[in-house]
Design goal:
The chain has one domain. A hairpin with an 8-residue loop joins strand 5 and strand 6. The protein contains six helices and nine strands, in the order H-E-H-E-H-E-E-H-E-E-E-E-H-E-H. The chain starts with a helix and ends in a 9-residue tail after the last helix. It is globular. Helices cover about 20% and strands about 25% of the residues. A nine-stranded antiparallel sheet has the order 2-9-3-4-1-5-6-7-8. The protein is an alpha+beta fold.
């Protein structure tokens, strides 16, 4: 599977309820207001878009917006530990007055597995300023200890009885996350949910303005092998 092959980039990503062109336009305008400029390329498949992200680093200088089968746009960044979508999705939800999400689902064999779902929305759609959280659920191995956290009003479709199960890892997992996302007509954990093509290309942005103290960069294979976290000799 494509998404699995691109972990950790794809284990933590964003969704914004907006057409791709509009999402890119507003994102670039926001970043320009912060003094950042970008080059813009297009990709005609999910694979091509992801292949344009490396080298990967903690700085996340490249991102790709990917069209989907739904009225939402996917968002991935060139991070060594996921796409870190919260800042962008929360801000786009604010600027576009629409909903955004963070979706995190690590592989079962991850060192610190986690399943996280965050929904951001403007106040008129239930989001709470200043960060616009509407709902947040997390079950994660926090350095060897499992934690379960939630905030915001549960949706009617949620299986809240699970949230008191003895094992915190069982309270919220990939299957439950997928079921919840289905209530929004979303299947972002499936490869075929993304529909980049020649007719509807993905858009890859690369930041041109960068500081002098740049973090190390890695290939996907190096990240999978754990090199970013190994002490340098």
């Amino acid at each position: 599977m494509i998404l699995e092959a691109w972990h950790p980039v794809t284990r933590d990503f964003g969704l914004i309820e907006c057409p791709l062109d509009r999402a890119v336009e507003v994102f670039v305008r926001w970043q320009e207001s912060l003094g950042r400029s970008f080059s813009i390329r297009t990709a005609t498949s999910l694979v091509d878009g992801l292949e344009m992200l490396p080298p990967l680093s903690a700085e996340r200088v490249r991102c790709v917006f990917v069209p989907t089968q739904a009225s939402w746009t996917g968002f991935f960044q060139s991070g060594i530990d996921g796409s870190d979508p919260f800042p962008a999705m929360s801000q786009l939800a604010r600027l576009l007055e629409t909903r955004g999400m963070r979706v995190c689902s690590t592989p079962p064999d991850a060192k610190y597995p986690a399943t996280i779902w965050e929904l951001y929305a403007p106040p008129k759609l239930g989001g709470v300023p200043p960060l616009l959280y509407r709902r947040s659920i997390c079950a994660a191995n926090d350095g060897g200890r499992w934690v379960f956290e939630q905030s915001g009003e549960p949706f009617p479709f949620e299986d809240t009885a699970r949230y008191v199960l003895r094992r915190k890892r069982d309270r919220f997992n990939r299957e439950i996350l997928a079921a919840y996302l289905a209530h929004f007509d979303l299947r972002p954990l499936d490869d075929d949910f993304y529909v980049a093509s020649h007719q509807t290309p993905a858009v890859v942005l690369e930041r041109l303005t960068r500081g002098e103290n740049r973090p190390r960069e890695f290939t996907l294979a190096q990240v999978v092998a754990g090199e970013p976290w190994q002490r340098r000799a």
